[in-house]
Amino acid sequence: MELFSEREKRKCPKRAKPRFSRQKPCGAVVEAQSNALAFALMLSCLIILFVLSLLSLPIPAPDTPTQRPEMKNSTLLIWWLPFGSGLPLPDCELNYSARGCTVTSDRRAYAHADAVIMHHRELIINWEELPEKPRPPAQKWIWMNFESPSHSGFLHRLDGMFNLTMSYRVGSDIFLPYGYLQRRRFHGNRPVRVERHRGLVAWVISNWSEEQERVQFYYRLQPYLHVDIYGRDFRPLLNDSVVETVSRYKFYLAFENSCHTDYITEKLWRNALVSGAVPVVLGPPRVNYERFLPADAFIHAEDFKGPRALAAYLKHLDRNPALYRRYQRWRRDYDVHVTSFWAEHFCAACQAVQASLHVNKTIRHLALWFES
């Protein structure tokens, strides 16, 4: 005689006795007890691990600061203000988040200055004004120059005189180019918009010299291409603004006054790129420009057989807006930063001094390095 119904048989093993027929099925009881035990063990393990992790944390000493340690304060003495600049000296912390930097032009600070910065132009003119007192121990002398070697005389007299170099040259101890591109935080999602330009090619030049390569190139270009020239001896700038003037043109002749490695000045960064014009460059080779900006952000004059071929290409781009816009695509990903003379330079130098207080070296062959 069967003691369990078919339903009860499916819930409990056949060996279960009839007296349990009114209670919970035995498999469910065992499973519930097992789950409860497993949960309790898991919870206990988590509590133990949490307590152990708290015990293993280091306890800071009462006199140990928990915030980031302060950078050692540094004093930078400007021995000559570049080109007699009357601009106020910068507050490096306020303007460039450079803490602990004191910039002064008071020569009475010489004895305790961590570094003295000397601008090349004033140095070669006012040689007799160099400090007569012995150089304080560990004080750094910084040679600063942003002119090309063609306009930097008497370099050979400076060998063994300075501890740090500051210039536009890659490889300087304090490297600060005339400008650079900054990648956008959200890049690639902004359409390239080309404003309606009324002119084709503009050029702003104040230092005209018949011996300059850029002037000679212009004379060869002139028969094939009309260029609107602005500057001291030419058209006046619109509202005395280079950017406002050039922004009315598609192309800008970013011709350097001399051709040297890394010598790529504001003629490219501010006059052309900030203004929205495509730069036509003449200076160091293309590969040097490509160290600083994309290959399709500029047109190099030396990429063509001659001025006539260059003129034909610019006219071709003028007639084909889609091709012209290719030279503006980089703007989706980058913004242009133009270095601020001279505040940014002084604060960059002060920060570099803070990081090299314990570095002891002398630039023994400055002329050879800068002119190479």
Please describe the topology of this protein.
Blueprint: H1 6-11, H2 26-56, E1 74-78, H3 92-96, E2 101-104, E3 115-119, H4 120-125, E4 140-145, E5 164-167, E6 174-175, E7 179-183, E8 199-204, H5 213-221, E9 228-230, H6 242-246, E10 249-255, H7 266-274, E11 278-282, H8 286-289, E12 299-300, H9 307-319, H10 321-325, E13 334-338, H11 343-355, H12 366-371
Parallel strand pairs: 1-2, 1-3, 3-4, 4-5, 5-6, 8-9, 8-10, 10-11, 11-12
Antiparallel strand pairs: 7-13
Helix pairs in contact: 5-9
How is this structure best described in words?
- Residues 72-179 form the Fucosyltransferase N-terminal domain.
- Strands 2-1-3-4-5-6 form a six-stranded parallel beta sheet. It has a five-stranded parallel beta sheet with strand order 9-8-10-11-12. It has a two-stranded antiparallel ribbon with strand order 7-13.
- The protein has two domains: 74-178 and 341-371, no CATH class; 181-336, Glycosyl transferase family 10, C-terminal domain (Rossmann fold, 3-Layer(aba) Sandwich), CATH 3.40.50.11660.
- β10 (249-255), α7 and β11 form a beta-alpha-beta unit.
- Helix content is 30%, strand content 16%.
- The protein is α/β, with parallel strands linked by helices.
- α5 crosses α9 (307-319).
- The protein has twelve helices and 13 strands.
- The chain has helices spanning 6-11, 26-56, 92-96, 120-125, 213-221, 242-246, 266-274, 286-289, 307-319, 321-325, 343-355, 366-371, and strands at residues 74-78, 101-104, 115-119, 140-145, 164-167, 174-175, 179-183, 199-204, 228-230, 249-255, 278-282, 299-300, 334-338.
